C-alpha cells in the first residue's frame, strides 16, 4: 500500500479520514498549544514585572538580569524534554506524549502561583522557582513536536502549511491570553496589591485551562503516520541514535532557522519589552497596564500573520515564504526600539505590530517545514530536538543578553544589531535548505525522505 495518495488524513487501513476528524485535530492542537504556551509565557511576563523584586531582591541592580536568566534556564532543559518526547513519541505515539506534557506544564505553573517569596522563605524561594521553571522547560521541549506532527500528519498534502499553522498560532494566542490576564489583574489589583497577590491569579488559572486542554486532546485520534508505522512494526528502536548518526547537520541547520525567529520573538514572549518599558528607574517608566495591552494587541497581529504565512507557504513553498519573512522581520527589528523609545504607548504598539508581522512569516511555515525535513520513523525526534536546540541558540537568553547590552552600552542600538544578526543567521540557514513542500510523509517513502534537503549533500 502506498501513502503517496493526497494524504488527506489517511488511516492505517488506507481509508480517508473524515473532514470532521481533521477539524477536531486542528481544534485540539490550537487549544492544547494555547494552554501550554499561556503557562510558559505567564512566567516570562511575571519576570519582567515582579519576579526581580519578589524573588531576587537581595541582588540589587542585578536582580533584573538574574530574573531574566531564569527564563533562559528553562531552555537548557528543553533538549531533555525533546529527547524524552522524541524517543517516546517515535516509539509509543504522538498523543500520549502530548497528554503528559500538558499535565507537567500545568502542575508546574500552578505551583508557582502558590510559591512563597524571598521575604517569606529566603533562598529557597528562588531555588524552588528555578526548579519549577525547569519543569516548564522540559514540558515545552516535548510539547511542540507532538502538536505539529498531529496537525501536519493529519493534513492533506496541499494544505500542510495551513494545518501546521494551527499549533503555531497557539503561541501568539498564549501570549495574548497571558498578557491579557496580567493586564486585567493589573487593573483589579493595582500597585502593591499586584505585587502581593495579583500576579498569582494568572498562574492559578492554569488549573482550569489544563483541564480543558486535557479533555480536548483525549478526543483526538493518533497520528495516521505513526499508526501506520505501528501496524507495520517499523518503529525505530533507538530513534535519537539514528537521528544523530544520519541527520546531525540537518538538525543543526534546522535549529538555526528557528533561532533566528526565536531570539527576536523573545523580546515580547520573554518579557523584555514589558520590563524595559515599565521599569520605574528606566528611561520610559510607562504604566504596566497599557504596556501589557499593547503586547496583547501585538499578539493578535502575530497570530494573523502566522496563520496567513501557513496558507501562503502552501501556495509558494516554505522556503520562499521564509525568505519573505526574514526580510519583513529585519524591517521590524530596525523599527522596534526607535518606536518604543518615544515613550508613546501607541507607537510602542506599532513597533511591536510591525515586528510581529515579520515574526509570523518566519513562524507560520515552521511546522510543515520541519515535518517535511525528517523521515517518518524518526520525525518526532527530529522536529523536537531541532526546535529545542533552536530555542537555546535563539530565545533562551535573548532577554538577558538584551538587558546586559543596554547596561553595558547605555543604548538599545546594540540590541537592534544583535537581533538583526540573529535574523540574518536564520536567513542563511533557510537558504541552505531545499524546499520539500508536498513530499510524501508516510512510511512507504522513507528512502525519499532520507535524501538530505541540504544543498550540496546527496544523502543524509
UniProtKB/TrEMBL annotation:
Organism annotation: Microbacterium psychrotolerans
Signal peptide bounds: none
Taxonomic superkingdom: Bacteria
Pfam families referenced in this protein's UniProt entry, alphabetically: MFS_1, Sugar_tr
Gene3D superfamilies registered for this protein in UniProt: MFS general substrate transporter like domains
Topology of the protein relative to the lipid bilayer: Multi-pass membrane protein
Main localization of the protein described in the UniProt heading: membrane
Keywords in alphabetical order: Cell membrane, Membrane, Transmembrane, Transmembrane helix, Transport
Protein name as annotated: MFS transporter
Protein location: Cell membrane
TM helices/strands, residue ranges: 65-85, 97-118, 124-152, 173-191, 197-216, 248-273, 293-313, 320-339, 345-364, 385-409, 415-433
Span of domain Major facilitator superfamily (MFS) profile: 25-438
Amino acid at each position: 500500500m502506498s501513502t503517496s495518495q493526497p494524504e488527506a488524513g489517511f488511516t492505517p487501513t488506507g481509508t480517508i479520514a473524515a473532514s470532521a476528524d481533521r477539524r477536531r485535530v486542528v481544534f485540539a492542537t490550537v487549544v492544547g498549544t494555547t494552554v501550554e504556551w499561556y503557562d510558559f509565557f505567564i512566567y516570562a511576563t511575571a519576570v519582567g514585572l515582579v519576579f526581580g523584586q519578589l524573588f531576587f531582591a537581595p541582588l540589587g541592580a542585578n536582580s533584573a538580569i538574574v530574573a531574566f536568566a531564569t527564563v533562559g534556564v528553562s531552555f537548557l532543559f528543553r533538549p531533555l524534554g525533546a529527547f524524552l518526547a522524541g524517543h517516546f513519541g517515535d516509539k509509543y505515539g504522538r498523543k500520549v506524549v502530548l497528554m503528559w506534557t500538558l499535565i507537567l506544564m500545568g502542575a508546574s505553573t500552578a505551583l508557582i502561583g502558590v510559591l512563597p517569596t524571598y521575604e517569606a522563605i529566603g533562598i529557597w524561594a528562588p531555588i524552588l522557582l528555578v526548579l519549577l521553571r525547569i519543569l516548564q522547560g522540559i514540558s515545552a521541549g516535548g510539547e511542540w513536536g507532538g502538536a505539529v506532527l498531529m496537525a501536519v500528519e493529519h493534513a492533506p498534502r496541499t494544505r500542510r502549511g495551513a494545518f501546521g499553522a494551527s499549533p503555531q498560532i497557539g503561541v501568539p494566542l498564549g501570549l495574548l491570553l497571558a498578557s491579557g490576564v496580567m493586564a486585567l489583574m493589573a487593573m483589579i489589583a493595582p500597585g502593591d496589591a499586584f505585587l502581593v497577590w495579583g500576579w498569582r491569579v494568572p498562574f492559578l488559572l492554569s488549573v482550569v485551562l489544563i483541564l480543558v486542554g486535557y479533555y480536548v486532546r483525549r478526543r483526538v485520534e493518533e497520528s495516521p503516520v505513526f499508526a501506520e508505522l505501528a501496524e507495520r512494526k517499523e518503529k525505530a528502536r533507538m530513534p535519537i541514535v539514528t537521528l544523530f548518526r544520519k541527520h546531525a547537520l540537518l538538525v543543526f541547520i534546522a535549529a538555526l532557522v528557528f533561532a533566528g525567529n526565536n531570539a527576536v520573538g523573545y523580546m515580547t514572549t520573554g518579557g523584555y519589552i514589558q520590563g524595559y518599558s515599565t521599569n520605574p528607574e528606566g528611561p520610559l517608566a510607562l504604566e504596566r497596564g497599557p504596556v501589557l495591552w499593547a503586547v496583547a494587541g501585538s499578539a493578535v497581529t502575530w497570530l494573523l500573520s502566522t496563520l496567513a504565512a501557513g496558507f501562503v507557504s502552501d501556495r509558494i513553498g516554505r522556503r520562499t515564504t521564509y525568505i519573505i519573512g526574514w526580510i519583513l522581520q529585519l524591517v521590524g527589528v530596525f523599527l522596534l526600539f526607535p518606536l518604543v523609545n518615544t515613550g508613546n504607548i501607541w507607537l510602542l504598539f506599532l513597533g511591536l505590530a510591525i515586528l510581529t508581522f515579520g515574526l509570523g512569516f518566519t513562524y507560520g511555515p515552521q511546522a510543515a517545514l520541519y515535518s517535511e525535513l525528517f523521515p517518518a520513523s524518526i520525525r518526532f525526534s527530529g522536529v523536537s530536538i531541532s526546535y529545542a536546540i533552536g530555542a537555546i541558540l535563539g530565545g533562551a537568553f535573548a532577554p538577558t543578553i538584551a538587558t546586559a547590552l543596554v547596561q553595558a552600552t547605555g543604548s538599545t542600538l546594540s540590541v537592534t544589531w544583535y537581533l538583526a544578526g540573529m535574523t540574518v543567521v536564520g536567513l542563511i540557514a533557510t537558504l541552505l535548505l531545499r524546499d520539500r513542500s508536498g513530499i510524501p510523509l508516510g512510511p512507504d517513502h522513507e528512502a525519499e525522505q532520507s535524501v538530505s534537503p541540504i544543498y550540496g549533500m546527496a544523502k543524509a
